[in-house]
Amino acid sequence: MRATIETKGADGKREMHEITEAEAPAKMLEIVRASAEALSIMNTKRIELEKKLYELETKAARPPMPGGGSESAPARRASGEGLAASSSEVESLARFARTGEVERKAMSDGSAPDGGVTLSPQMDAAITSLAARFSPLRGLARVVAARNADWTAVVATGEAGAEWLAETDTRNATATPTLAKIVPPSGELSAIPSLTRWILQDSDYNLAQFIADYVGRAFGIAEGAAFWNGTGTNQPKGLTAYTLAATGDATRDFGTIEKLHAGSTTAINPDKLIELFHKLAPAYRGNASWFVAAETLSYIRQMKAVDSGQYLFSPSLAEGQPDRLLGRPVYEDANVPAMGSGNAPVWVGDFQRAYCIVDIGQSWVVRDEVTSKGNVLLWTAKRLGGALIDSHAVKTLVMSQ
User: Fold this and answer.
1) Strand pairing of 289-292 and 328-332?
2) Which of 60, 68, 144, 365 is most buried, by the most CB atoms less than 10 A from its CB?
3) C-beta of residue 93 within 8 angstroms of C-beta of residue 211
4) What is the rounded distance in angstroms from the CA atom of residue 161 to the CA atom of residue 197?
5) CATH number for the domain including 338?
C-alpha cells in the first residue's frame, strides 16, 4: 500500500512524497526533523531582523553627540528646515503667533488654559526632538506618553524562583517577586519667548522655527537638569536625589542606588571604573552607557591601562556615533556632578531600564499681547515627570569626603 504526503520546505515550496506503509514511520520522522530545522532557520532570521530593528530604533532615539550628524542646527535654521511637521502645521503656528487665529486642522483650542491652543502631535514631537539635544538622558531613558499624571509603572523588586524536579516529584510553590507601583513625580515646564510686533509683521521670518528652537532649547536645558538633580516636588525626581548605599543588589533596599567609593577626593583610579562597570548585573551591561560631566570626561580621556599603556577611552570612528569608555558609549552631560569631595561624578547603567520619563498630554501655547507693550509673549508649556524605576540598572562612583 502506497500513500502520498505533501510537505512545505524552508523556502515555502510544496513537495510531494510517495511512500509505502513500511516507510511511513521513518519518513514521518524525517519530515518532522526537516520541519524543526526549517522552523529554527526562520526563527533565527526573525531574531536577526528584530535585532537590526532594535539597533535602528536605538540609534534613532539617541541624541547626537557633539560633532556628530551630517548638518548643524544653525545650517538647518538658515535653510528653514529642522521641524518634523507638515507645512500646514508650521503655517498654523506662525499664524497664531502673528494674529491669534487658530487653524483647527493643525492646532486645537479645546484643552489648553486661558484661551491658548494645544500644539499638534507633530509640532509637539518636533519641539521634544529639539529638546533632546540639550538633554542626553532623554535619548537613553524609557519615555512614555501619558494622558494624565496618574500614570503608574509596575516593577518587580526581586527575582522569580524556580526548581528542578523529577517526573513524579511534588511541585512546590517558588519565590514570587514583589511588585511595586511607581508614579513618577511631575510638574509643569514653561517658556515664554517674547517677539516684537515688527518681527511678527515680517512675513519672511521663519517664525515657527524660531519658536521651536527657543522652546526646545529652554525645555531641554530645564528638563535635562531635572532628570539628574530634580527634587521630585512639582518636577521630576533626578537620579542624584535618590539614596546611595555601598551594598549589593541582593541586600540593598529597592529604590536605593549602589555606590562605589573612589578612595580619593580628587582622583579616579582606572581600576575603579572597571570595578564599577562590573557592579552591574550581566543583563544590564549589554545596553549600558556612561554619563560624566565635561571636566570628568577630560580627566578620563587621559587614563591608560597600567599593563598595556592603552587609553581606556576610545574616540568615535564614525560620524554621529558616541565615544566609548571600556567598550560602552560615554555621554557628556553638564548636569552630572563634577569631581569633588563627596560628589558622584561617574554614572554607568542601562538607563532605558533605570529611568522613566513621562510626557503628559501635549504642549500648549497662550498668546499674550497685553503684558509687554510692543511685544507679544508666547507662553508655551508642557507637563512631564521622571523617576528611577529600576535601582539595579544603574551604579555610581562617589568621591571620598
Assistant:
1) parallel
2) 365
3) yes
4) 67
5) 3.30.2320.10
List 358's β-bridge partners, or say none: 144, 385
Picking from 395, 369, 388, the residue whose alpha carbon sits closest to that of residue 261 is 395
Let me know if residue 338 belongs to a domain. yes
Q: Is residue 248 part of a domain?
A: yes
Report the alpha-carbon angle 256-259-264, nearest 5.
150
Number of domains in the chain: 1
Whole-prediction pTM: 0.71
103 CB burial (10 A radius; 0-12, 13-18, 19+): middle
Q: Is residue 260 part of a domain?
A: yes
Cβ pair 400, 265 in contact under 8 A: yes
For cell 583610579, the residue is: 269
Domain span at residue 250? 244-354+392-398
From first CA to last CA, the distance across the chain in angstroms is 89
Backbone angles phi, psi at 35, to 5 degrees: -65, -40
- Please state, in angstroms and rounded to a whole number, the distance separating the CA atoms of residues 151 and 385: 10
User: What are the mean pLDDT values of the chain's consecutive 10-residue runs (401 residues total)?
Assistant: 62 66 67 63 64 55 39 34 55 72 52 63 79 89 89 76 81 74 91 82 73 88 96 96 95 94 93 95 94 95 81 83 91 95 96 95 85 85 94 96 84
